[in-house]
């Protein structure tokens, strides 16, 4: 306690003008602002084929090079976040009792969340019908495409993503098969997050079962293994917190790479599509999440956004809800959410609570269908929504995951190749910002699910007396 008071005293005496002493969310925000300013100052040069060539900043270093450095940081963060999920879930079984009732409650909350997201998307698209604003442009594209044989940079990107998507499927059997590892280590090397979480649940349940054995030697061995899991969790968590202190710098480099390469002028070209998507994501994340957390979970919007700001901003900046898991757990701890609910949501439920990606994929497919003049029935629209839901559950660890799953969803919507070729550049041109918004929404969803899991429930019980001794 005295150490914490000393730390708080040092923080109080620290000069407020020094950015290094600011809270993490303010440092992250500063990194975003500086990155945007530098990226705008060194805009990429547009080539004849429509692609952009990064501009040199200093000593032959370009904005793309800085973005590559940020990518390496994100890869390292993700590499540590996957074992964190394993040890966090396994350790939760050791320290507290995670019941089947909590699991059912979590899935119910996730289903309600996705149902609300679907309603928001359908209402916006069917009342506003924004895709019709592009009908004239689509007709013009069809005329120009027939006379142009040159392959643009966007079409090359589409071909690459289509090849990657051909290896994936929305079939339920194929989705289940994709989660079955060929070895115990494969889920960790391939970032198969859901499989890692399931393995952790099995290990934790097995440990709890073995504690009831009458063999003293076995009980001693299980206790030693308990201590090992607890130590591994704390070690990985400490390493991740060290890395997170570098997050504002990596975020600044990432924003420089994105803005410097793609620029901000694309928003002028795709304003209708961007506004449609952002409106839906904003209603779901800025109104539904905090309102439900307040009315059901008892956490006011002020607490929700103040304590969750670091996790939300980091998820937005580095475009990964998985790599943000340590900050999500930390934010939930500050909110007073129980440890078991926090880990169940941030480490297991995050695989099913992908509202951001699901809502985006579904709305994009329906928007493009409107562009093509397709009059889809409500049943057909719901089938596209379900295809997006199935795709969002299998995206962890897949490069270009958002675009790959979108390609599968567009195929499920029975859109023609000509329509996809027209719409793909629209999506690609602003994917760098939409992808980050999706990640931020997913982080906010993890916070909300954990809060609702705690609502109306009793405090978790200790798993065993031996585990309680290991806390010291």
Task: Explain what the structure shows.
It is a single chain. The relative contact order is 0.16. By secondary structure, the protein is an all-alpha fold. The chain is built from 21 helices and four strands. The two termini are 15 Å apart. The N terminus and C terminus are likely disordered. The chain has one domain: Orthogonal Bundle (Proton glutamate symport protein). Strands 1-2 form a two-stranded antiparallel sheet. It is found in: Cell membrane. GO terms for molecular function: symporter activity. InterPro entries: Na-dicarboxylate_symporter, Na:dicarbo_symporter_sf. This is C4-dicarboxylate transport protein.
Derived from helix and strand composition plus strand pairing, the structural class reads mainly alpha
Look at the structure and give the mean pLDDT: 76
> Care to count the β-strands?
4
Work out the helix count: 21
CATH class: Mainly Alpha
Separation of the first and last Cα atoms: 15 Å
Name the strands of the widest sheet in spatial order: 1-2
- CATH-defined superfamily: Sodium:dicarboxylate symporter
What gyration radius follows from the Cα positions, in whole Å? Answer: 24 Å
State the major sheet: 2 strands, antiparallel
Percentage of residues in helical conformation: over 70%
SSE layout and pairings?
Blueprint (H helix, E strand, L loop, with lengths): L1 H12 L10 H18 L3 E2 L5 E2 L2 E3 L2 E2 H33 L4 H29 L6 H13 L5 H13 L6 H7 L7 H4 L3 H18 L5 H29 L2 H16 L3 H4 L1 H25 L5 H18 L6 H10 L4 H10 L6 H17 L6 H15 L8 H12 L4 H38 L10 H5 L3
Antiparallel strand pairs: 1-2, 3-4
């Amino acid at each position: 306690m005295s150490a914490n008071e000393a730390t708080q005293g040092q923080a109080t005496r620290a000069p407020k003008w020094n950015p290094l002493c600011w809270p993490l969310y303010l440092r992250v925000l500063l990194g975003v602002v500086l990155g945007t300013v530098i990226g705008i100052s060194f805009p990429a040069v547009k080539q004849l084929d429509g692609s952009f060539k990064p501009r040199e900043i200093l000593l032959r270093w370009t904005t793309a090079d800085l973005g590559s450095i940020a990518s390496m940081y994100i890869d390292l963060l993700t590499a540590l976040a996957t074992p964190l999920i394993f040890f966090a879930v396994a350790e939760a079984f050791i320290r507290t009792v995670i019941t089947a009732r909590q699991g059912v409650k979590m899935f119910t909350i996730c289903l309600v969340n996705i149902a609300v997201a679907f309603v928001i998307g359908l209402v916006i698209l069917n009342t506003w019908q924004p895709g019709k604003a592009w009908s004239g442009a689509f007709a013009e594209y069809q005329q120009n495409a027939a006379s142009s044989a040159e392959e643009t940079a966007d079409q090359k990107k589409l071909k690459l993503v289509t090849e990657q998507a051909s290896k994936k499927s929305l079939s339920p059997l194929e989705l289940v098969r994709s989660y079955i590892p060929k070895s115990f280590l494969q889920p960790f090397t391939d970032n198969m997050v859901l499989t890692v979480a399931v393995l952790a649940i099995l290990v934790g349940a097995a440990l709890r079962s073995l504690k009831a054995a009458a063999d003293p030697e076995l009980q001693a061995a299980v206790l030693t293994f308990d201590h090992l899991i607890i130590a591994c969790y704390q070690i990985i968590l400490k390493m991740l917190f060290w890395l997170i202190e570098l997050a504002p710098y990596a975020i600044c480099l990432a924003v420089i790479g994105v803005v410097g390469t793609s620029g901000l002028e694309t928003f002028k070209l795709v304003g209708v599509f961007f506004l449609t998507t952002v409106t839906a994501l904003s209603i779901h994340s800025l109104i539904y999440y905090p309102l439900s957390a307040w009315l059901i979970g008892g956490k006011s919007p002020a607490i929700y956004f103040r304590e969750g700001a670091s996790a939300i901003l980091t998820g937005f900046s580095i475009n990964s809800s998985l790599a943000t898991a340590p900050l999500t757990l930390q934010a939930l701890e500050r909110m007073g959410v129980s440890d078991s609910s926090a880990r169940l949501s941030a480490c297991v439920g995050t695989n099913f609570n992908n509202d951001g990606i699901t809502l985006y994929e579904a709305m994009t497919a329906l928007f493009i269908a409107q562009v093509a003049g397709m009059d889809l029935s409500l049943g057909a629209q719901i089938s596209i929504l379900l295809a997006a839901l199935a795709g969002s559950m299998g995206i962890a660890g897949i490069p270009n995951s958002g675009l790959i799953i979108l390609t599968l969803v567009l195929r499920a919507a029975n859109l023609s190749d000509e329509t996809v070729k027209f719409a793909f550049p629209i999506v690609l041109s602003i994917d760098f910002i939409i992808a980050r918004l999706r990640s931020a929404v997913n982080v906010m969803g993890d916070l909300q699910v954990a809060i609702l899991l705690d609502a109306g429930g009793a405090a978790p019980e200790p798993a065993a007396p031996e585990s309680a001794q290991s806390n010291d």
